[in-house]
Amino acid sequence: MIRTLIATLLLATAVPLVAQPLPTPTPAPSGKPSYLPTVPKAVADIRDAALTDNYAWDLVEGLTTEVGQRMGGTEAEARARAWAVAKLTAMGFANVHVERFALPVWTRGAEAAEILAPFPQKLVVAAFGNSASTPAQGIVGEVVGFDSLSDLIAAPDAAVRGKIVFVSHAMPQTQDGSGYGFFGGPRRQGPSIASRKGAIGIVVRSIGTDHHRNPHAGGQIFETGVAPIPAGALSLPDAEQLQRILKRGQPVTMHLTLVSSIRPGDSGNVIAEVPGRDPTAPILMVGGHLDSWDLGTGAIDDGAGVAITAAAAKRIMDAGRPLRTIRVVWFGAEEMGIYGGMFYQDLHGREGHYSIAESDFGADRIWKVDSKFGKPREAEGKALQAALAPLGIVPGPLDEADGSDIGPMIEGGMSAVGLSQDGTKYFDLHHTPDDTLDKIDPEALRQNVAAWTAMLAVLSGGIEPQPKARKRR
Amino acid sequence: MIRTLIATLLLATAVPLVAQPLPTPTPAPSGKPSYLPTVPKAVADIRDAALTDNYAWDLVEGLTTEVGQRMGGTEAEARARAWAVAKLTAMGFANVHVERFALPVWTRGAEAAEILAPFPQKLVVAAFGNSASTPAQGIVGEVVGFDSLSDLIAAPDAAVRGKIVFVSHAMPQTQDGSGYGFFGGPRRQGPSIASRKGAIGIVVRSIGTDHHRNPHAGGQIFETGVAPIPAGALSLPDAEQLQRILKRGQPVTMHLTLVSSIRPGDSGNVIAEVPGRDPTAPILMVGGHLDSWDLGTGAIDDGAGVAITAAAAKRIMDAGRPLRTIRVVWFGAEEMGIYGGMFYQDLHGREGHYSIAESDFGADRIWKVDSKFGKPREAEGKALQAALAPLGIVPGPLDEADGSDIGPMIEGGMSAVGLSQDGTKYFDLHHTPDDTLDKIDPEALRQNVAAWTAMLAVLSGGIEPQPKARKRR
Questions:
Q1: What gap in Å lies between CA A385 and CA B73, rounded to an integer?
Q2: Contact status, residue A253 vs residue A143, Cβ threshold 8 Å
């Protein structure tokens, strides 16, 4: 059936370089097929050419160097949007524009943590998003330590009241990042739980897997009815230091300063498109988030993601015109609460989306592809698996996909692809000052671009070459 | 000859467990001996028992946890001395005391570096020791970048005058740390050179080999007649960021705040001894430096060194009484200019020292042994090589050894041993906030203790067992 289609298309005057594959997998001897359909040469060619990509590096190098940190809702994020519009326009994208929205903007101020007794010394700390502010001179309290969130929950209020809570449980490295859910609890739920029990503040072991004096920031939202308290993360070496000090058994007094402020502000999603030959066809949406945490320059979170997805779309644009419009979205203010993703859903959620996909898990190699197209389009999922396997990408489930900004839309039923990056080292850097350009391996970045380009080629409905400019005599 | 000696000694009532080996190497077939004398069983036994050592971990864990940073001349260093006296006394050392001396104490204040134009963003910076202080509000100047110290030296004064100098050359990793000399130039000489040319400040790429947002502090002393200027280090990712920004070709303006102060103060060397059977015999001196830089907790620099050397001396003490007194010295204020080493030399330089040795290059495995005993005692150097080879330690030169605090004494002609730690990763952590306990591998630490214990066993002149306490009926 693929051959028939290609033969038909070859007779047409405008020859699509990349035909949408409609595979017919041969049944495997043992029943369940353990192999995949053949990959059209045009898809393989555009995929392999992307292994020499420089667009993505140029984008992430430019964004992290010329803007740097770009926390959601700040003046720096506004500069990032202006940078993005200029860059995407210069790259030849169509319909480049910003869709703005309002949000409360939390801003970090002076921060310090110091053990006053029994062993005076400074610890490295960073506040979580939406932390309450301490007074400028900080607060002083006795530290009560817990080995896990469960231990904090189980503790009588009297053991916590008037104290500074410390939770120390440690997240392991995992390839798929699955530890982040459970082990992120002390950051996400810890502040609310501690506040309910009467704590005057909370510090937790950073939700990370490194051993550097760089705390991991991150968002948290106080539950309704809970009084916000100062809440932050100690770097992992500092958390282990505090554990050792507590183990000595003497009362530990901490001076904690976590100054911050909240004000009304605004952010926006940057949109850019590769127009499809059929403007009525459901679109392909790809992207990442433009904002970053304030401590690093947001290279792996998520400069890489916006760079990879735009680079892939640009490579399709260079190859010709796809049937479907490809929409690149660089979401705003993801870190502060998925504001950009929710705003996009409000504005565009009822438009036809053939597939959506987001890159927001670093810049290491993609190791697995998931998709969720629904049963009738499962063959497309297999065609995608086939196109990606030569990049060392494992065929994953055909009935799931995820993403941060696009999470609500996937839950709403949109078809989606998940190109999973190796997350083993991701939480060494995630939300820390160390999230900088030097952590990106250019070759791994190119493998990402090749995978995203191949995905777009498979799903774009066929790419038609641009008419060549006539030579003047 | 060894056998004769041991036989003789076995006839004595007090049997030395460890006889000083007087080796007779058999000539190698090809002329140069490529093998070493046999190792007395008593030396091998005491060495191998040290591979299960816990003294060193207990010391470095205690010092870094209960004191933390202990910059030379500060109140924290005074607490470290009190901690040391209590600990060494509790361990059973004799003659535990402090020998105090005066020094100027430089103290770090508020620090910040911010690019104002063309791409506003903050960079991570730390002042060098003896840096001049900026005003509290900092200074603002155009940045002039140089790829090496040579380029700065070659630049016309007019290119530097009134500007903030940036030197970016990068140090490679080496096992023996030999890059630190040449590549440390921008820190040691850079500030003086920049000041002579009229610069208002200088920032250099940290003298380090990591890629974390942690700057490497370090000492520097302005040349006589040179006006001190503010001088500091950018973390490596920030230095590379500044390089990328400068490469864009637009004028770069920096706001630099490096507040610091200097006041008179005092420090001291902590001394502890294992008394020898012969109080008139020249002594063995071993040690490291007790002070640390202020950014980390001084685990590898030099908590490990003081722990390793004291643990080895304690293991000898546990085994019995050596012929020679072993003196453990924990030097004060090394980082600020080898004050403790020079004071020790002034006070004790004319006493008889059979050998001196210092551990001050981290906590990784020892890979090479050097010694400098002079030609007549070369056989002792070979006996030492033989005793250490089973720990995976390469026999090094017999005519050289070095050390920081003990450097001036070695130059003055004292016999010395150098047990070289693997320095490949040392400059990832050196003088940074990341110099913390979690960076020490307990097994590598034990290999160090085993090597130092073996060295003391070889050179101690024989260890006599303690008389056993009589059992009461």
A1: 64
A2: yes
Question: Which chain A residues are Cβ-neighbours of B118 within 8 angstroms?
Answer: 66
Sign of the dihedral through C-alpha A75, A77, A81, A82 = positive
Q: How far apart are CA B436 and CA B299, in angstroms?
A: 5
Contacts of B297 in chain A (CB under 8 A): 121, 241
CB contact under 8 A, B439 and A211: yes
What is the nearest CA distance from A201 to chain B, expressed in angstroms? 23
Burial degree of A75 (CB within 10 A; 0-12, 13-18, 19+): exposed
- Residue among A211, A412, A435 nearest A335 (CA): A435
CA distances from residue B356 to A165, A424, B345 in whole angstroms, order as listed:
49, 46, 12
CB B301 within 8 A of CB B435: yes
| Closest approach of A19 to chain B, Cα-based (Å) | 42
Q: Write down the ipTM of this complex.
A: 0.88
Rg (CA), chain B: 24
Sequence-ordered list of residues with C-beta below 8 angstroms from that of A28, at least 6 positions apart, any chain: A34, A35
Considering only CA atoms, which of A309, A315, A300 is closest in space to residue A357? A309
Residue A61: how many CB atoms within 10 A of its CB?
Answer: 18
A439 touches chain B (CB under 8 A): yes
**Tens-place pLDDT, residues A15-58:** 444 444 444 554 444 555 567 899 999 999 999 999 999 999 99
* Alpha helices, DSSP H, located in A111-235: 149-154, 157-160, 179-183, 185-188, 190-196
A 44-63 residues with CB < 8 A to B: 61
Q: Which domains does chain A have, with CATH numbers?
A: 41-104+264-464 (3.40.630.10), 119-251 (3.50.30.30)
Contacts of A211 in chain B (CB under 8 A): 434, 436, 438-439
Secondary structure (3-state) at B359: coil
pLDDT tens by residue, B309-358: 999 999 999 999 999 999 999 999 999 999 999 999 999 999 999 999 99
Helix axes B304-319, B41-49, angle to 10 degrees: 130
Runs of H (alpha helix) within A175-303: 179-183, 185-188, 190-196, 236-247
Half-sphere exposure (CA, 13 Å, Cβ side) for B289?
32
**Integer CA distances (angstroms), A69 to A291, A325, A334, A352, in order:** 8, 31, 14, 34
Within 10 angstroms of residue B158's Cβ, the number of other Cβ atoms is 9
How far is residue A325's CA from residue A322's CA, in Å, rounded to a whole number?
7
Containing A263, the helix (H) or strand (E) segment is strand A253-274
Q: How far is B179 from chain A (nearest CA, A)?
A: 22
One-letter identity of residue B301: D
Q: Which of residues 66-125 of A touch B (CB under 8 A)?
A: 66-69, 76, 79, 119-122, 124
For residues A442 and B385, give the distance between their C-alpha atoms in angstroms, rounded to a whole number: 46
A425 in reach of chain B (CB within 8 A): no
Which of B68, B212, B241 comes nearest A65 by C-beta? B241
Kindly report which listed range (A129-138, B20-29, B173-182, B223-232) carries the lowest average pLDDT score.
B20-29
Q: pLDDT tens across B258-301, in order?
A: 999 999 999 999 999 999 999 999 999 999 999 999 999 999 99
Dihedral angle computed from the Cα positions of residues A69, A70, A72 and A73, in that order, rounded to the nearest 10 degrees = 130
d(CA A99, CA A347): 9
Distance from CA of A79 to the nearest CA of B (A): 10
Question: How many angstroms separate the CA atoms of B312 and B47, rounded?
Answer: 9
Q: How far is CA A233 from CA A111, A153, B357, B433, in A?
A: 11, 19, 42, 16
**Cis before A238 (ω within 30):** no
